From TrEMBL:
It comes from Schizopora paradoxa. Pfam families: EnY2 (PF10163). Component of the nuclear pore complex (NPC)-associated TREX-2 complex (transcription and export complex 2), composed of at least SUS1, SAC3, THP1, SEM1, and CDC31. TREX-2 contains 2 SUS1 chains. The TREX-2 complex interacts with the nucleoporin NUP1. Component of the 1.8 MDa SAGA transcription coactivator-HAT complex. SAGA is built of 5 distinct domains with specialized functions. Within the SAGA complex, SUS1, SGF11, SGF73 and UBP8 form an additional subcomplex of SAGA called the DUB module (deubiquitination module). Interacts directly with THP1, SAC3, SGF11, and with the RNA polymerase II. Signal peptide: none annotated. It comes from the Eukaryota. Keywords: Activator, Chromatin regulator, Cytoplasm, mRNA transport, Nucleus, Protein transport, Transcription, Transcription regulation, Translocation, Transport. Its main location: nucleus. Belongs to the ENY2 family. The gene is SUS1. One of its GO terms (cellular component) is nuclear pore. This is Transcription and mRNA export factor SUS1. Involved in mRNA export coupled transcription activation by association with both the TREX-2 and the SAGA complexes. At the promoters, SAGA is required for recruitment of the basal transcription machinery. It influences RNA polymerase II transcriptional activity through different activities such as TBP interaction and promoter selectivity, interaction with transcription activators, and chromatin modification through histone acetylation and deubiquitination. Gene3D superfamilies: 1.10.246.140. PANTHER family: ENHANCER OF YELLOW 2 TRANSCRIPTION FACTOR (PTHR12514).
């Protein structure tokens, strides 16, 4: 099975079990608390102003890469631990 398939299956299980909300809610709150959301919004506005014509897909690709790179390590680790705990419960 490819990694994309595993990701899709895990995401499906998270959503179906309502665990997605239990993980995503605190993640969004933490990212907002540390200013990550505001920084990404600011970056999006600045980058859009620099583009002669705003192309949503191009802007999204740039922001996605920056967003993934800029998530604080502590937030990543905590979120990954929540996902691992969920997976451990699934495969007991």
């Amino acid at each position: 099975m490819a990694a994309d398939s595993h990701y899709s299956q895990i995401l499906r299980r998270l959503v179906e079990s309502d665990e997605w909300e239990a993980i995503f809610g605190p993640l969004a709150a933490k990212l907002n608390e540390v200013g990550w959301v505001d920084e990404l919004k600011h970056t999006a506005k600045e980058r859009a102003r620099e583009m002669p014509t705003v192309h949503f897909q191009t802007l999204l690709a740039e922001l996605e890469a920056k967003g993934q790179e800029s998530v604080p390590a502590a937030v990543k680790q905590e979120t990954m631990q929540l996902i691992r705990t969920f997976l451990d419960k699934q495969f007991e």
